[in-house]
Amino acid sequence: MPIKILSVDDEIDLELLLTQYFRRQIRKGVYEFKFAHNGLEALTMLLKEKDFDIILSDINMPEMDGLTLLTKINEMQNPALKCIMVSAYGDMGNIRQAMNNGAFDFATKPIDLDDLSVTIEKAIEQITYIKQMQQEHNELEGIKGDLAVAREIQQAILPRIFPPFPENAAQLDIAASMNAAKDVGGDFYDFFRIDDDRIGFVIADVSGKGVPAAIFMAVSRTLIRATGIRGVSSSECITYSNELLEKESVNNMFVTVFYGIYNIKTGEVKYTNAGHNPPYVVKQNGSLERLPVTRNMAIGIFGDFEYQEETLQLEHGDTLLLYTDGVTEAINPSEEEFKEERLETTLKSTTFESCQQMIDIIKADVKTFADGAEQSDDITLLALKRL
Question: Model pTM?
Answer without folding.
Answer: 0.71
